[in-house]
C-alpha cells in the first residue's frame, strides 16, 4: 500500500471509530498511548513529574484533548509549536426528555447542534452514540461509558413528493418535522408505581424520560442494568461508513471531515515528529477542542482556559524533576515563550464545487488533492498574515507539500475558526489553514484522499523544523 493510501485508510478508520467528540478524544488517546504518550490529569500538580524527551496528553471533559512532546534540548522560555483544531461536528442530540408517541410511531426528541445542512439528515440510516454515566454496583462510583450502537435505529422521513404541495422547495420545521422515528407500536412509558419505600428522585429516572425499549437497547449494549444508567449525552450519527470514492479512489466520502481531518492529521504529525524528539529544543503541542461549532465558549472550548492553563503549567516547569519538586519558574517565562510560539489553526477549507463555481472568488478556487489551503481574510475571520505565510512556505518546501490560497468573495458570508480567539487570548502568531472539501456541514462531505498525507507531512515538518526556521523570520 502506498503511503498516500495508508494515510487515507488511517483516516477512514479514525472517523468510523469516532461518531462523537467523546469518541474522537478516545481514538486520539488510543493512538497516543500506542506511541508511548503518558496521560496527565488536571487534578494533580505536574511539578517534578514531567521530563524532557517525553510525551504526554491531558483531557478536559473527555471531549477536548491536549497532547505535547518536550524536546530533549528544551530550555525554559523556548517557544511552543501548536496545531489547534476541533473535535465536534454539527449533529442532533437527544433531548433530556425525548419520548414522543405519534400516529403509532415512537419518535425521539432531538436538539440541533451547530449549523448543519439539516436537509441532508433526512432519509439517512441513523444510529446513536455518545457517553452514558452508569453506577457501578460494586463500588457505588458513577463512571462514564462510551457507546456506539452499530445498527441503523432511527430515520427522519421526508414527505412523499406526491403529497408535497410545494414540490419546488424543501423547507421544514426543525421542531415538528425533523423528528426521527425509532419504532412502531410503542407503549407510553409507565411511571413506576408509587410506594412508600421508593427512593426519592430529584429528576425522573432515565427510563421514564426516554423510550423504554431504546433504554433497553442501550443498557444491553453496555452490559449494565437500565436502573444503573444515571444520565447520558447521546448524539445521532449516520451509520454509512466513511469510504474512498471516485474512479481512481481520488475522493473520500465521509461524515465529519470538518474537523476530524485535523484531529487525525495533527495527531499523526505529532507522533511522526517524535522520531527526532531528542534533537528538538521546543515543546510541540496539539490542542483539539470541543464546541467550535457553537462558538467555542464553554469550559473546554477554544475560548476556555484549557489551553492557557496547560501552557501556564508547562512554561513554569524546568522539566528537571530535582528542581521542580522545590520550586516553579516565575510566570515571566510564559510571556517570553508565547512571543516565540506559533499556532497553526487547522480547520477544513472550501474546495471549488464545479456546479457552483460562481460562488467562489475568481482567482482563489482551491482544488481537491492539491494540498492544504491557507485561509486569508482582511477582516480577521481568519488571522493569517505575511510572517505566517512565510513560515508555512518554508515548512511546506522542506516536506514538499503544495499549498493553496483562499479568500472569500466580498459579497459572500465567511466562516471562522478557533484561530482568532486563541490568537487573541494568548497573543501568539497564528495562521489559518485546512484541507479543501465540498459540502461542509452536510451529513456526508467530500474531500481528496491524497490531501490527508499532505496535511500529516506539513504538521510533521512544523513540529520538527519550527524552532530552526522561526528565529530567522523577524517581525518586530
Ligand atoms: Zn470546522
UniProtKB/TrEMBL annotation:
InterPro entries: Peptidase_M18, Peptidase_M18_dom2. It is an enzyme of class 3 (hydrolase). GO terms for cellular component: fungal-type vacuole. Its EC number is 3.4.11.21. GO terms for molecular function: metalloaminopeptidase activity; zinc ion binding. It catalyses: Release of an N-terminal aspartate or glutamate from a peptide, with a preference for aspartate. It comes from the Eukaryota. CDD domains: M18_DAP (cd05658). One of its GO terms (biological process) is proteolysis. Its cofactor is Zn(2+). Keywords: Aminopeptidase, Hydrolase, Metal-binding, Metalloprotease, Protease, Zinc. Belongs to the peptidase M18 family. NCBIfam families: PRK02813.1. This is aspartyl aminopeptidase. The lineage of its organism: Eukaryota, Fungi, Dikarya, Ascomycota, Saccharomycotina.
